[in-house]
Amino acid sequence: PDAYFNIANVYYNIGLYDEAERKYKKTLELKPGSKTVRHFLMAAQAQMAIQEKNFAKAKSLYEEIMADKPTEPIFYNNFGSLLEKMGDYNAALDSYKEATRLDPTYAISYFNLGYICDRMMNARRAIGYYKKFLEFHPDDKIALNNLGWDYFVIGENDKAIYYYKKATAIDDQFTYPMNNLGWLYIKTGQYEEAATCYAQVLKKDPKNPLAYNDLGYLYYLKGMYDHAIVELKKAIKFARKEDVAYVYAHYHLGLVYHKIGKQERAMEAFTQALATDDKYVSAHEKVAELYESLGSFKKAKEHYKRCLELLDEKSSHREKILARLQSLSSKEKSKGAL
Q1: How far apart are CA 151 and CA 310, in angstroms?
Q2: Percentage of the chain surpassing pLDDT 90?
Q3: Structure confidence by residue, pLDDT tens digits, 235-276
Q4: Where are the alpha helices (DSSP H) in 73-106?
Q5: Is residue 90 a contact partner of residue 280, using CB atoms and an 8 Å limit?
Q6: 184-191, long-range: CB within 8 Å, 24+ apart, which pairs?
Q7: Closest by Cα among 88, 309, 303 to 328
């Protein structure tokens, strides 16, 4: 049975869950009382359900595993990944933390904690988790890039540049750090330097949707709205629907249309961003603001509340959203009085 179990684990770890399921079942035939094997069998079935986007089935299987309080961190890590996909960020955070509590050397969960903190707009917490992950994998270019991004978010640009350049030194074909460096230059008003960064990216990858997205945003800031629309439409053309560039380009297109007074098109663009990523806080916020400006306070509230659901409980951005909700309540009372 041990040989079947070991082979099953290999299949599981490389994502061949149907093969893993067969080997786990064979192991159980030879070792029917093994709770551990049963857990891995259910986990393989859960991962297949995730591939089929049957998240409810996957969650039910993982919850059955968790009821037995297993000690293997992989279950908590993968359950956290499922919860993240389902938009339950706080529960995912807890599951990843439990994985690291069970095994403080389980590196991937530190990376996942950093990533989910980014999604919850808490860069300071993310930094700590990425640094912990890098203790085990110091040359991981994605973690280095993400760490650079978080330092940029909290205003420590020198550290951001350091980590972007370190990630690029590891793999100069990995264009995310150069894209992000360009974004840093945009946000610090260094537009020529930003344009140079994007030119370097597009020289290596002429169909890079993130570079076109950022260029579009750069033109938006410079008031060159026609040029912005052209570049953002290129980003949408070259991006896959599941790419962040696809979401960002629609979001930025919404900003452009809003700026030039085309509010219906702005709403369409923001809504398209949310159709692809319902967890995009900034897009929810913009949709809420548009609804608020149109006097649709109920719909505005729905999107502001969705922001609160997605934001980390310790995020400073929550204060802004709560203030908007309070303002909405006052407007609703005034509207009612009229």
Answers
A1: 21
A2: 89
A3: 999 999 988 999 999 999 999 999 999 999 999 999 999 999
A4: 73-85, 89-102
A5: no
A6: 184/152, 184/157, 184/160, 186/214, 186/217, 186/218, 186/221, 187/152, 188/157, 191/218, 191/221, 191/222
A7: 303
Q: What is the pLDDT of residues 9-53, one digit of tens each?
A: 999 999 999 999 999 999 999 999 899 999 999 999 999 999 999
pTM over 0.90: no
CA distance 276 to 73: 31
Q: How many residues does the chain have?
A: 338
For residues 128-134, average pLDDT: 98
Q: Which H or E run includes 146?
A: helix 141-153
Residue matched to tokens 């509340």: 305
Whose structure tokens read 């949310």?
274
| CA dist., res. 281 & res. 283, Å (int) | 5
Q: Are 256 and 231 in contact (CB under 8 A)?
A: no
Residue 122 · residue 318 · CB < 8 Å: no
Q: Residues 259, 254, 271, CA angle at the centre, nearest 5°?
A: 145
Terminal CA-to-CA distance of the chain, rounded, Å?
76
* pLDDT at residue 248, rounded to an integer: 96
* CA separation for the pair 144, 151 (Å, rounded): 11
Q: What is the DSSP string of 174-208?
A: --HHHHHHHHHHHHTT-HHHHHHHHHHHHHH-TT-
Tokens matching residue 134: 């890098």
DSSP symbol at 139: T
Tell me 223's DSSP state. T
Could you report the per-residue pLDDT of 312-323, keeping only the tens digit for each? Answer: 887 888 999 999
- DSSP H helix total and E strand total for the chain: 19, 0
Angstrom distance (rounded) from CA 157 to CA 149: 9
What does the pLDDT read at residue 336?
53
C-alpha pair distances (Å), 134 with each of 116, 145, 166, 305, 331: 16, 11, 13, 35, 49
DSSP 113-125: HHHHHHHTT-HHH
